[in-house]
């Protein structure tokens, strides 16, 4: 672009604030209440870029359901992740969950099949992603493919033949196979289930920045800002 085009772009509040973040003038940026996720993510990638060594950027929600915290990913960025990308999302989502909750992440790769109950190309992709994630992070507790009821309910998991799993029936990190299911899933849990949704928080950027749904409330903005402040602290994000 020309200098004049760059000058005009920098006058946009999104780009102005994100460029200031890149220069260290701010500790984080919360955006999305009035603009689309696409606008926010494009701005973040152009002005900040991914953290060195990071394979991809994704968006997750911290979902508070009956005083218990779950993490849903990816709910904001990648429409159709490859099995390899989905594996990286699962591993990084576990790191994010451990960082924010200090609890042990139990990662379930979700599908419409549980351990071969159905065969389809989409099921195979999730199965490959779970296996790749286990190779990337052998110390993490990872299982898949699992239907969401088997991931969350131990009796259901047992009825469906899943035994000896440290994840099935007690998952707290839910990895959705695509953006359609992730976005629909978190909104159903929030709107019909009464859960509190915090996010989406963009994970993997060089600096802390968050997107918001245009249906957000003032309290949603405050919740996300508090999480971004934690991410801007000098302490390293702990490995799982």
Topology at a glance:
Elements: H1 3-10, H2 13-22, E1 29-30, H3 37-47, E2 58-65, E3 68-73, H4 83-101, E4 106-110, H5 121-136, E5 141-146, H6 148-152, H7 154-159, E6 173-175, H8 179-191, E7 196-203, E8 209-210, H9 218-232
Parallel strand pairs: 1-8, 3-6, 4-5, 4-6
Antiparallel strand pairs: 2-3, 2-7, 7-8
Helix pairs in contact: 2-3, 4-5
Give a written overview of the molecule.
- The structure is a single chain.
- Helix 2 packs parallel to helix 3.
- This protein starts with a helix and ends in an 8-residue tail after the last helix.
- It is elongated.
- The protein has nine helices and eight strands.
- The model has no long low-confidence stretch (mean pLDDT 89).
- It has an eight-stranded mixed β-sheet, sandwiched between helices.
- It has a single domain (3-232), classed as 3-Layer(aba) Sandwich (Rossmann fold), CATH 3.40.50.10750.
- The protein has 240 residues and is an alpha/beta fold.
- Strand 2 and strand 3 form a beta hairpin.
Fill in the CATH topology: Rossmann fold
Rg over CA atoms, rounded to whole Å, is 18 Å
Order of helices and strands: HHEHEEHEHEHHEHEEH
Largest beta-sheet characterization: 8 strands, mixed
Can you count the beta strands?
8
CATH architecture: 3-Layer(aba) Sandwich
Number of helices: 9
What structural category arises from helix and sheet content?
alpha/beta
Arithmetic mean pLDDT: 89
Instruction: Name the poorly predicted regions.
Output: none
